[in-house]
Amino acid sequence: MIKAEGLSGGYGDSRLIKNISLTVKKGEFLGILGPNGSGKTTLLHLLTGTLPPIEGSVCLAGKPLTEYKPKELAQMMAVLPQKTDQAFSFTVKETVSFGRYPFQKGLFSQQTEEDEAIIENAMKQTGVLAFADKSIRDLSGGEQQRVYLAQALAQQPRILFLDEPTTFLDLAYQKELLDLIKRLTRENGLAAVSVFHDLNTASLYCDEIVFIKNGTAGPKQKPETAITEEHIKALYNTKVSALLHHQLPKPLIAIQPEEAALKLQAIPFEALLQVRRDEILLQTEIPLRTLSSAPIGSGFSWNRTFLHKRLPAHSDQKEGLTAYLSENGFYPQETCAMASSGRLDRLVCRTFEDEELSVCICVMSGFSIWILINGFATDQFFVRAVMGAEAERMKVLGGEQNEPGEILVAATQTKETSSEENIEKRLKQLIRFGTAECVREAADLLE
Questions:
Q1: Mean of pLDDT values over 47-52
Q2: Contact at 8 Å (CB) between 29 and 182?
Q3: Fewer CB in a 10 Å sphere around the end CB: N or C, the chain?
Q4: Against a cut of 0.85, is the pTM above it?
Q5: What CATH superfamily classification does 264-446 receive?
Q6: What phi and psi values does residue 151 have, to the nearest 5 degrees?
Q7: Which positions fall inside the ABC transporter domain (predicted)?
Q8: Which CATH number fits domain 2-255: 3.40.309.10, 3.30.750.24, 3.40.50.300, 3.60.15.10?
Q9: pLDDT in tens, 309-343
């Protein structure tokens, strides 16, 4: 579709782009990423022909850009810039209609029924049809950006260039815009080339990624091989952590604050527990990394609120908990909630600690267990901690408890100076000993 060879160029005699070669195929979504000032937008100008190269060439569909007449080029290529200044107060429909100009013949040619259908479809696709008769000046920056995308789509291009297309869009419209472009690449064979600042967005939507630094580019790569912790650290000269998307095999990057920003005082879990006959509540200022089998907040999550509620036996726990959270102003997105039918003011709660770590263990009605850690643990350790607590519970109860309660493990995730392996070894010892002791005490209370 488009091929650049030995491309160098810039403004005046400067060479902001140095000897870059790349190809973009039909149906491909290519992301261009790199630090500020690396030449991303300049490369886009060179690829679209708005900036002539000092050296090298760009071919579109096997033909050099320089051999296309302006209208011919506009029939094949559309560009959505980062921001467009609207000098005249055209309506939204008039602005989108300009996308059909390359296909009109003669100075005073009128739009055909086909043009009208294409314009309306472009406005529908981008969600601006409702603004059709409004002046574009009366729209927000995000709404204007969607209008200009509709204009670009009205050209029915074979390749679409975008310069940070989501800059002025809120989260919902970012997703809608990128979903639309991705769908057009798959269903219509549209080729798309976009400059991104957001590594994670590029990882989720792009088929291939090119990184630029100081005007030079590396090879095209799949996101899963391009977006690695080591690569991003070197490229941006900053600390990051690599993650995996919870549903897709896509790498994600999280910035890593300075160690001083991560240091927090230990949370006094026992002192914060609010214990009543029908409810046990713990709320913390910082969210805790949590793994739970509870009806609400199960699996891995981050939570500030932990609730154990007394509900009638044989009732629908999830339904009852959901109603209680709604009626009492809790946020389900940051709440881990479980239930049982027995009194909750007979719990056993103990804190076990060594020089650097502390673990608070609570055993409640129905032998539900909370393990609250001041410290850091890997996701694998969370799983092992849940399994270990379950094993200790069943060992102490001797299989007499037919329906043991839920188990949750939550940690502040504050890192200490010791190695992760050493920390988790000590945590395992504290949890194993503490769980057994607390379950025994809870069992004695029931006798």
A1: 90
A2: yes
A3: C
A4: no
A5: L-amino peptidase D-ALA esterase/amidase (3.60.70.12)
A6: -60, -45
A7: 2-239
A8: 3.40.50.300
A9: 988 877 788 888 999 998 998 988 889 999 888 88
